[in-house]
Design goal:
There is one protein chain. By secondary structure, this protein is of the alpha+beta class. 41% of the residues lie in helices and 29% in strands. The protein contains 13 helices and 15 strands. A five-stranded antiparallel sheet has the order 2-1-5-4-3, with helices on both faces. A five-stranded antiparallel sheet has the order 7-6-10-9-8, sandwiched between helices. Strands 12-11-15-14-13 form a five-stranded antiparallel sheet, with helices on both faces. The relative contact order is 0.05.
């Protein structure tokens, strides 16, 4: 039961559905904008008009007027819902779902009736949309929940797709299981503390995102991302938390595998890189183990340095020509190049670079990616082998020359011996 003052307050600031207040004769003394919009009239066209003559179909106006008289006399129980038609300015009939409340003066006497209505078609569409939304939620991986901001976070709502973790929504709603029961013991205190601390320190923010583990009914561990929204009362006190749980276990596994891969790469001798296929070939990625030559990845990724800057000056033209020829070829394959790099401390290192051309959907090159491995020790070994081979070739030449000279000498000695022998025979 509402006073006229309360009616004015409700219609002005609170009620967003169709609302109209009638005096004891059934005349309109107050109507809100949603009501005017639905009926197609301005407020001035309706104030003071008789509700039953102006806004109801003729065939139902008499019955509605009789019900109104019974309401004013207190013979009809108010507050429930029923359906009836209204007639718009364009003479269209619309079905409205009504709730009726008595208006009383300070002495408690009924002085009018407040009608609150919703378009039946709009409500039907709203229910259908809600049903579709619930169906989408229940068939998605995102679990929706709402808990009270009190010890243990008692749950008021949770979507049925909590079943993906082995639970039913009834187990939570009945209180048999609480949200705190499914959060991993290792994360329970942290998850509560993070949420409460965040909203305590950020009173003007409504959303908070964090990650933790939950336990399925069969005790398996699943990682979830929880997007929490805080609900506050008029005084700013938190009354509820509502949120969305999304299973991120697969992502976490991939992150862990990627982290392990990065550790392997960063501790290996193979440097990975990826260049954009545009002017100056800026680096889009280079592995952190570029530090083996004294540089950090950020030196290149921030645009301050280009990879060609660290190629030994005498090798740059050859390397660039090889890359350009590689790009011009239509057949995709790997390009293998050996050249020298200049380390940050000025040291010279031989490297082997294996490049691959990456093409877009239109076959045009978009990136060059590859691996670089330090082959300085191999080059030193090859140099030693080459030097030793040269020494062996020289020694071999000397030995052959010596053998030829010895053979020539022996031949001369033999000839000399023949001459001496003939000389003796003639005597």
């Amino acid at each position: 039961m509402l006073s006229k003052e309360q009616v004015y307050e409700c219609l002005s600031n609170v009620i967003t559905s169709f609302a109209v207040a009638l005096d004891d004769r059934g005349n309109i003394f107050l109507i809100n904008q949603p009501g005017c919009k639905l009926l197609g009239y301005s407020e001035n066209e309706l104030i003071g008009e008789n509700w039953f003559k102006k806004c109801l179909p003729r065939d139902s106006a008499k019955e509605s007027r009789n019900e109104f008289k019974q309401m004013m006399a207190g013979d009809v129980l108010l507050g429930g819902e029923d359906n009836s038609l209204v007639t718009t300015k364009l003479k269209e009939n619309k079905e409205i779902i009504w709730r009726r409340f008595a208006l009383k003066d300070q002495s408690g006497e009924v002085v009018g009736i407040l009608l609150l209505g919703d378009d039946a078609l709009d409500r039907k569409l709203m229910r259908e949309e809600l049903s579709q939304a619930q169906m989408i939620i229940e068939n998605s991986s995102a679990v929706i929940y709402r808990v009270r901001s009190s010890r243990g976070w008692p749950l008021e709502f949770i979507s049925k797709n909590i079943s993906q973790y082995g639970y039913s929504d009834d187990e939570f709603i009945s209180g048999a299981i609480k949200m705190a029961n499914i959060i991993s013991p290792d994360d329970l205190e942290r998850s509560f503390r993070e949420t409460e601390d965040f909203f305590a320190k950020n009173i003007f923010l409504r959303n908070f995102r964090h990650e933790y583990c939950i336990l399925t009914k069969d005790k398996k561990i699943r990682w979830v991302e929880d997007l929490v929204e805080i609900i506050r009362d008029y005084s700013g006190t938190a009354t509820h938390y509502q949120g969305t749980l999304v299973d991120i276990t697969d992502r976490k596994i991939m992150e862990e595998e990627l982290s392990l891969s990065n550790i392997v790469i960063e501790n290996s001798s193979i440097v990975l890189y990826r260049l954009r296929f545009i002017a100056d070939w800026p680096l889009e990625y280079i592995s952190k183990n570029i530090k083996r030559w004294g540089y950090v990845a950020e030196d290149f990724l921030a645009g301050g340095m280009k990879f060609f800057d660290i190629i030994y000056p005498e090798d740059r033209e050859r390397v660039l020509a090889g890359q350009q020829e590689f790009v011009r070829q239509l057949v995709d394959h790997f390009l293998r190049q050996e050249y020298r790099l200049v380390a940050k401390d000025g040291g010279i290192h031989w490297v082997e670079n294996v490049s691959e051309l990456v093409r877009g959907s239109d076959i045009r090159p978009t990136h060059i990616q590859g691996t670089i491995i330090d082959i300085t020790e191999r080059k030193k070994a090859e140099q030693k082998i080459n030097e030793r081979n040269k020494e062996l070739v020289t020694m071999n030449s000397l030995m052959i020359d010596r053998e030829l000279k010895m053979a020539s000498l022996k031949e001369r000695v033999k000839q000399l011996e023949g001459v001496i022998q003939n000389s003796k025979s003639n005597k």
